[in-house]
Structures are given as structure tokens and as C-alpha cells.
Protein: stearoyl-CoA 9-desaturase
Amino acid sequence: ITARMTDTEIEGPGRHRNGDVLAESATKRDDVFDETYKEKEGPKPSMIIVWRNIILMTLLHIGAVYGITLVPSAHVLTWAWFVFCFLTSALGVTAGAHRLWSHRSYKASLPLRIFLATANSMAFQNDIFEWARDHRVHHKFSETDADPHNAVRGFFFAHIGWLLVRKHPDVIEKGKKLELSDLKADKVVMFQRKYYKMSVVLMCFSIPMFVPWCLWGESLWLGYFVPGLLRYTLVLNATWLVNSAAHMWGNRPYDTNINPRENKFVTLSAIGEGFHNYHHTFPYDYASSEFGCKLNLTTCFIDLMCFLGLAKDRKRVSPEIVLARAQRTGDGSTRNRSG
Structure:
């Protein structure tokens, strides 16, 4: 396997440096905002509460709070295992479901796709197919009725409330019309979707709980609540903060016409996903940031995978295009933008 990195530097919407038009130009992508969409006039459909989800989410967070009380009594190796499980499951979302499968911002080898799919099951945030479909809808119809977690409806809705009610009819309608042939053609994605429930039981709960018990004698009780429930809950909330906080608080160096912001707290908690004004301006950039690996563990991971020959064809927006866009539509933030 060669360790040579092969990348694509995007000079403009849908163009390589050599002038060839990308197969997935910005005008044809499902993760670029659709200016033609108009919300339906008249009264909004009533929200239908999903009480099962409310009960489960309440119990989950109660369990996580209890898990915090157990942390001081955990073995030091359990703390290390907690961090490992957190980062692994987070990468399954950020490097996997998000940057690879939602935005196709780089290409991954079969071994890497298998790892990311497995890590994604550890994150338990819906299977890759459903996650990527909803995320493309989010970008294409951002902050409209067709956005699954429309931040215009408030912090709580964008953070967790959207999971506690039935989807808006426009979300369902637009999701059905997306071109998802790339996801359907990926055997790893479809295998995970077919066996998702089984993989979640194994990866999200069983392995985090049993490894400390088997290898260094940690109690199953503590293993379930700390690297299990507490870690899972923290990864969930880190992801949700991208939908909520990063759409409300922070600066907008690249485009003031959209609400997504650069939010350093979200950048740190979601291992690099808080450069959100940049990301919604250039959703096809694999780094999801102007600054490469700075405060961006996910980008570092993808770079490492390229160095090892397990990934290639990272799409990157040229500095000239970024600067021109910032000068044209940004909020005037200094060039030392870091979230």
C-alpha cells in the first residue's frame, strides 16, 4: 500500500485546480443550500410528541449523571478506556457519517470504512444511511421547515427536541427526493444498516462494559454506567451542540447570510466540528475548517489515514477562494480566525 497522499484542491464551485469540472459540482450536490425552496404558507403542522423517546432520553441522562458519581471510584485504566471509547465513537460520526458518507469529502479504503462503520455503531446516532440522508437534507434546506433540526425553532429543538417529536412533513418529503445512490452502493453502509441494532448492542454497550471487567477487573456496574452510558451521552451532546450552539453563538468570518457560526467550545467538544460557518460555506472541504489540524482532531485522523494509505482524494478549498469569500460575505473577523 502506498503512503502517497492524493488530494483534490478546489479552486471554485465544482472545479479542480486544472480546470476540470468535478463529477459532483456544487450545483448538483445534495449538501449545498437550495435557494429555490420556499416554506409552505399557512399554519404550521402541529408537533406530535414521541413519548417513548422522551422517556428514554430522560432515563439516559439520569444514568449519565449517576455515572459521573462513579468516576472517582473507577480504575485509572477505565478512565483511559472511557477516553478511547469517546474518541472512537466520535470519529465514527465526524470522520465517518459526516465527512466521508454525508459530504464525500475524501475517499476511504475498505478497512477504514469498516472501522468507521463499527465506530459509528458505537456512537448510536442512527445508522450511517439515515444519518447521512438527514444531514444532506439539513444542508440543502438549512434552517427551514425541511431542516430536521431547524435552529430557528430554538436551542432546545435544535439540540434534542427534534428527536422528541415526529419529523416535519417537509423533512420527510425532501429526504425521499435526495439522490442516495452512493450510499446504497456502499456495501459497508448497507451491511451496517441491515445489522444496526445488533451492532449497537455490541459496540455501544457490551464492549465498553465488558472490556474493563475482563482485562483489569472493573465491576460490570461501573463499566455499564461510565464507559457505557456516560460516554454515550457525552458523545450525543457533543454532536447535538453542532446543531444548536454552533448555529447560534460565534462569529461568521465567511458568510453573514447564514446562521452557522465558528464556536470554539463546540470545536473542542466535537473534535473539530465547530468551524461551522466555514463548513456551511464550503461543505465539501474534508477539513471542515480553514485551519487544517488546528483544534481539529478529525482532520488529523483523516490526514493520518492518508499517510498510511488508507484514505485519499481529500477535497480542499484553496486559500485564495477562502479569502475572497471571507472578504465578500464575511463579518470582517480578523485573519486569525480560530472559532
About this structure: Confidence is low (pLDDT under 50) at residues 1-7, 11-27. The chain is about 55% helix and 5% strand.
